[in-house]
UniProtKB/TrEMBL annotation:
Protein name (Swiss-Prot/TrEMBL): Phosphoribosylamine--glycine ligase
First-tier enzyme category under EC: ligase
Keyword entries, A-Z: ATP-binding, Ligase, Magnesium, Manganese, Metal-binding, Nucleotide-binding, Purine biosynthesis
HAMAP family recorded: GARS
Keyword Magnesium: yes
Cofactor entry: Mg(2+); Mn(2+)
Record has Nuclease as a keyword: no
Length: 428
């Protein structure tokens, strides 16, 4: 099979690395890719926002299958345009991707299907939103309705903070994405990410993971795209996975079919595990970044076969098998991220790879023999271990060997799992 993967981050290097191992693969292109994807595929300079260019390249190069990595091209309907040209595509339709693209769309589906989620109200104007807020009190969560590069959510502990978030949305801080605002109740619990392949009708649960969204140790500092992740997430017991499938995922798939917009792709559920059980925080219509990086290191099955079966409605009878170890990714980012940072600094030689250690590139580019930083999140050091603690030690040791003074990372990725492991040892 000739495959074109769209995207340029650490998630795409991880997907490309795993796709490249498939016996079904004949040729892999990544557009636009990064300094890591060029090791396992051919990078092509294409703008994913230019659908005609993507389709044109796919046709000219006899591509059989397009895989979309990031959210923006999925939500913009690149999948529809690729399929319209007669090429199979992993990535839901624009209509189905509203599960990620519109918070109020997902909330309405939850209401309709009885899916557990935080109670909410949607507002199109500032004054009624402020009135509702003052009657409700804090903590409370303010969300720009549309896509906002992961920055549209404010978990407000004070009324003042909530008022500023509401004002910001209606003042155009997130452009059209903030023209309507969802205000929802604060959910208390531990968060987990859950990934399920859906072929429109059938589902195949993949794996659980936990992300670390704040920039600094101790979950302090600004929100980022994610500074590290590990898989599986111990908080997601087999019972909770079963409940999430029954109460959240299956009704979503049924609801989307009933609307005439079946969901075909990976459904990434952001969950809060509350005292009453799992509740949906949000859906994403794509794989997580950085959650994908530890997941692919654990995956034994052929990723290309699974993604193609998903895209063509053939998940029946498919299974996914996983290594028994835990996997953990530490993101090494450019100093200043998620605010202003410099690009173009020299990254020293990367540590040797083993079966238990893989350095995925997120924001890098090659300049002849040199490797240069080219983004905010730059490297994703990913390791396997018998425990999360062991995987973390391996990743930390590898990071210690990388000479890149312009970078920083968190030192406490996986802390919840490591604490659990320690407590279990003490109990045992
Ligand atoms: P989202 O972009 O919807 O994933 O929200 C970003 C982050 O805000 C989530 O990962 C949660 O940590 C937090 N968050 C969102 N909604 C809620 C909620 N209803 N209660 C508590 N925390 C939330
Ligand atoms: N790591 C969170 C996301 O991919 O949205």
């Amino acid at each position: 099979m000739r495959v074109l993967l769209i995207g340029s981050g650490g998630r795409e290097h991880a997907l490309a690395w795993k796709l490249a191992q498939s016996l079904m693969l004949e040729k892999l292109y990544v557009a636009p890719g990064n300094g890591g994807t060029s090791e396992v595929a051919e990078n092509v300079l294409l703008d994913p926002a230019d659908h005609a260019a993507v389709v044109g390249f796919a046709k000219a190069n006899a591509v059989d299958f397009v895989v979309i990595g990031p959210d923006a091209p999925v939500v913009a309907g690149l999948g529809d345009d690729v399929r319209a040209a007669g090429i199979a595509c992993f990535g839901p339709s624009k209509a189905a991707a509203q599960l990620e693209g519109s918070k109020s769309f997902t909330k309405a589906l939850c209401d309709e299907m009885g899916i557990p989620t935080a109670a909410y109200r949607k507002f199109e104007a500032e004054a009624p939103a402020l009135t509702y807020l003052r009657g409700h009190g804090t903590p409370i969560v303010i969300k720009a309705d549309g896509l906002a590069l992961g920055k549209g959510v404010t978990v407000a502990m004070t009324v003042d903070e909530a008022e500023r978030a509401i004002a910001g949305c209606f003042a155009g801080q997130f452009g059209a994405s903030g023209a309507s605002v969802v205000i929802e109740d604060f959910l208390e619990g531990e968060e987990a990410s859950f990934f399920v392949l859906c072929d429109g009708e059938r589902t195949l649960p993949l794996a659980t993971a936990q992300d670390h969204k704040r920039a600094f140790d101790g979950d302090m500092g600004p929100n980022t795209g994610g500074m590290g992740a590990y898989s599986p997430a111990a908080v997601m017991t087999p019972e909770l996975i079963e409940r999430t499938m029954r109460e959240i995922i299956e009704p979503t798939v049924r609801g989307m079919r009933a609307r005439g917009t079946p969901y075909q792709g990976v459904l990434f559920a952001g969950l809060m595990i509350t005292r009453e059980g799992p509740k949906l925080i949000e859906y994403n219509a794509r794989f997580g970044d950085p959650e994908t990086q530890p997941m692919v290191l654990r995956l034994e099955s052929d990723l290309l076969e699974l993604l193609h079966a998903t895209a063509t409605g053939n998940l029946a009878g498919k299974t996914a098998t996983w290594r028994p170890e835990a996997a953990l990714t530490v993101v090494v980012a450019a100093k200043g991220y998620p605010g202003h940072y410099e690009k173009g600094s020299l990254i020293g030689p990367l540590p040797a790879e083993t079966e238990s250690l893989k350095v995925f590139h997120a924001g890098t580019k090659r300049d002849g023999e040199r490797l240069l930083s080219n983004g905010g999140r730059v490297l994703n050091v990913t390791a396997l271990g018998g425990t999360v603690a062991e995987a973390k030690e391996r990743a930390d040791a590898a990071i210690g060997m990388i000479d890149w003074p312009e970078g920083f990372c968190r030192h406490d990725i996986g802390w919840r799992a490591i604490l659990r492991e320690r407590n279990a040892q003490l109990d045992g």
